[in-house]
Amino acid sequence: ALLTAGHCTANRDYFNIYFAKYFFAANRELTISTKNKIVHEDYSEGENDLAILFFEQDLPTWYSPVSLEKDPKDSATGQELIIPDYGVTKKTWLPSGDSYGTLNVGRSKIAFRLFDQSRFYTMNIRDQASVCYGDSGGPAFIEKNNNLYLVGISSQGDWVPPIPACTFGANWTRISYYYDWIMEQLLKINP
Fold first, then answer.
1. What pTM did the predictor assign?
2. CA distances in angstroms from 56 to 5, 34, 37, 59, listed in the order given
3. What confidence tens digit (pLDDT) does each residue in 144-179 have?
4. Which residue of 19, 26, 48, 139 lies most exposed, with the fewest beta carbons within 10 A?
């Protein structure tokens, strides 16, 4: 299964997910389609922005899933995150009309929680790009004991003029808040 933002699944029921050992858009080693999706039942714009996509077949043997972080202390204010992104500011168009972004692995910190325990907000650090258009649904990780743990799903980038877009901060759906819901949905599909 793949976690993403609920708004990324609007108006679509099925998706093609590309897997490659080394990222290059013209060399997609494997494409796996999704068979169904579950969007959080209370999803509305900016609220409960979470969905699960289920694959039609097994993932490649060389691909390993990441663990979900269920401890809310590990997504607290000040926690440093690892954020891979592609974003529209790095998008390249191919002659075929396909596009791909250049992978950027940035770091950010959780600045504060938003409104309740279900979301958090990050601020850009070290002059690295933040979440841009096209990065929604992407992951934020923490590293513990040399392992990555998923702590957030990108919900919305943010910018304030005159600061350029994609350099300010982002809103994230907090995995620990939805951990029980995620496990419940996974058990419904794979009892």
1. 0.81
2. 20, 5, 11, 9
3. 899 999 999 988 776 555 555 566 678 889 999 999
4. 26
